[in-house]
Design a protein that fits this description.
The chain is built from nine helices and no strands. Helices cover 72% and strands 0% of the residues. With 203 residues, the protein is mainly alpha-helical. Helix 1 runs antiparallel to helix 2 and helix 3 runs parallel beside helix 5. The chain is elongated and about 70 Å long.
Amino acid sequence: LESAFVEAVGYMRLGHALLLKSLRPWHAARRAEAIAAYQHAIEIVSPFRVTRVIVEPLWGLCRAYGLEGNLAQAESYARQALEIAEQSGDGWIANLVRVSMGASLVLQGMDGEPWLDEARRGFEAVRDPHSACAALVWMGTDMLRQAHSMSLQLAVGHDAALPWPSLLLKGAAVCIANPYFTGWWATVGMGQLAHMAPRTARE
């Protein structure tokens, strides 16, 4: 087609494919190819007056550096992408950038909730439940990561808080003792399990 825009989009999508094809830890060569593809896409579209198209490769660079652990570089690209996206009124891709930055922080053992929660609220505002779910999954991952350090103070004035294994056991005991929990499994729960059971020998 001999279109600079189409060529740039091709390099952006090539970068996405290279990142998806690799599992952590990524092969250095493949990651370098993805970064080069994103940077080349930015070089192609930079002369355009429509700066909105630069957001996608910046988002890719945020992912590439963030998931590797280079959080400073990832945040730099994230901030650039957010500035352009918000100026152009594209809140949807701005929230994708926030999810990537939040996920990068979570994977490095840091607090990504501010990024993820803002993304979740943004997706819910535009009625995109699938992307909101992605933000919630990473928020849940962050909560599980921090579970080992959680404790519960039962009453004011008590010095000792319960460790998380004890909390899990006591929580399970409360559920089992709850008549509504037992009643649900005795009726609806058993019905659902029966519905999932194989109906023929081949199943």
